């Protein structure tokens, strides 16, 4: 597995753009399209907007991509394709490389090698990153919740199933509610959480609607990233408000 030093050599830093050959965005697309058929100019511009690549500009404002820029784009696109990593995670890793740090691996312990070297490795990567699906019995066993509690959570809309299968979000809900049950908090008490989550989703959807309605790859990626950012901010706000009230109880 290549380490940070090899990644550093492959990716370079924002200041290391001294190679004489430069490419325009059309040439970059031609270079990458065979490996990433869905790549588009808007996708590359989106990655630049997110700070993952920083091409130089001509006096007229046209982008000039070095060979190092192209390799950096290839690295980012391969990580998205092979390991399904969010752009923020990839950017944090690349920023650490640019600062001269030596991160041993990507967050979550994934390899810094972004591309599968064999069909077997590709399948292993997909299995590691593919969303988990649980049966009812698996959900009960792994969450520590009783079957009765899980059924109750479903009746109040806190957990849902697709073809009698449950995802990891359902597992997290079941675990949290099992622990809350120990404090005497029942599913019927938690209905406001479902309503609040629906209102938050409605807020997120309204904000991203202008971008989400576009069909190009970059717009879809931008909408998903923005939705995650807004959701995280809403969670931070909720936590700060509740913890602020609890702090006042102690004073």
UniProtKB/TrEMBL annotation:
Alphabetical UniProt keywords: DNA-binding
A Pfam family assignment: MerR_1
Tree of life domain: Bacteria
Protein name: MerR family transcriptional regulator
Domain HTH merR-type: 38-96
SMART domains, per database record: HTH_MERR
Presence of the UniProt keyword DNA-binding in the record: yes
PROSITE patterns documented for this protein: HTH_MERR_2
UniProt cross-references to InterPro entries, sorted A to Z: DNA-bd_dom_put_sf, MerR-type_HTH_dom, MerR_fam
PANTHER family: HTH MERR-TYPE DOMAIN-CONTAINING PROTEIN, REDOX-CYCLING DRUG-SENSING TRANSCRIPTIONAL ACTIVATOR SOXR
Organism: Arthrobacter caoxuetaonis
GO molecular function, a single term: DNA binding
